[in-house]
Amino acid sequence: MAVKPIELSMAHRLLAGGPVALVATRYRDHINVMAASWFTPISMEPPMVALAVHKGTLTHDYIERSGEFTISLPNLALMEKVRDAGMKSGRDVRDKFAELGLEPVAGEALDTPVVAGCLAYLECSVVEAYDAGEDHTVFFAEVVAASAEQEAFRETWLLEEEEAKPLHHLGGHKYALLEKLLDAAAREEEQE
Ligand SMILES: Cc1cc2nc3c(=O)[nH]c(=O)nc-3n(C[C@H](O)[C@H](O)[C@H](O)COP(=O)(O)O)c2cc1C
């Protein structure tokens, strides 16, 4: 094996593996949805996430105006819709949810909807925004409600049935599913 330099612009892909999301936003009576993979948990108490959003997106506009967004985690069945949500801007269509055949449903805590048929949901209320250079803003947000399909997630992702696995984005048109759950403690016992 040989370790070779890669272009810095591709470095973020080395960190890929977190699930891809459908991020929904709302401003007054307009709602929008986009694909997102640049987000991460950053605090447990209070529970917080950070989401990097391109400044040119409608999503950016709506988050700035409303101070909230929701994260819906899709499975493989929604892969093509995730791709389309990431290629088309809500600026160019009247109703991106309808255009993509995605259904908005009310969440538990916020006015912004979540996307029906996903495996899990986080509702996020922005506490701070960081200007991350020319292209993105990082929104730091408190998770004010979260829910997940029992078949898919109980304390961790269960990774059993294919349709109960979260979808991951590797870059470009490439996506992935995690293969199986490994338990370090159980494996250690087996090996003793
Ligand atoms: C799989 C995938 C992941 C993406 N992740 C992000 C992201 O984390 N942040 C971002 O700003 N844009 C991301 N994009 C691009 C946006 O989804 C894209 O610019 C979208 O058209 C913006 O829509 P809007 O203008 O309706 O908000 C991603 C696209 C794809 C396909």
What do these coordinates show?
With 192 residues, the protein is an alpha+beta fold. The chain has a single domain (16-191), classed as Pnp Oxidase, Chain A (Roll). It has four helices and 13 strands. It has helices at residues 58-66, 79-85, 96-100, 184-191, and strands at residues 21-27, 30-36, 39-43, 48-54, 68-73, 104-105, 114-115, 120-131, 136-148, 153-154, 156-157, 168-171, 174-176. The protein has a seven-stranded antiparallel beta sheet with strand order 2-1-5-8-9-4-3. The longest helix has 9 residues, at 58-66. The radius of gyration is 17 Å and the shape is globular. It starts with 20 loop residues before the first strand and ends with a helix. The model has no long low-confidence stretch (mean pLDDT 94). Residues 20, 32, 34-38, 52-54, 57-59, 82-83, 86-91, 96, 169 line the site of flavin mononucleotide (FMN). Flavin mononucleotide is lined by residues 20, 32, 34-38, 52-54, 57-59, 82-83, 86-91, 96, 169.
Topology:
Elements lengths: L20 E7 L2 E7 L2 E5 L4 E7 L3 H9 L1 E6 L5 H7 L10 H5 L3 E2 L8 E2 L4 E12 L4 E13 L4 E2 L1 E2 L10 E4 L2 E3 L7 H8 L1
Antiparallel strand pairs: 1-2, 1-5, 3-4, 4-9, 5-8, 6-7, 8-9, 10-11, 12-13
Overall, the morphology is globular
CATH superfamily label? Electron Transport, Fmn-binding Protein, Chain A
By CATH, the topology is Pnp Oxidase, Chain A
- State the distance separating the first and last CA atoms: 31 Å
What is the average of the pLDDT values?
94
Give the second-level CATH assignment, the architecture.
Roll
Order of helices and strands: EEEEHEHHEEEEEEEEH
The biggest beta sheet is recorded as: 7 strands, antiparallel
* Share of β-strand residues: 35-45%
Helix count, per DSSP? 4
Query: Would you report the number of β strands?
Result: 13
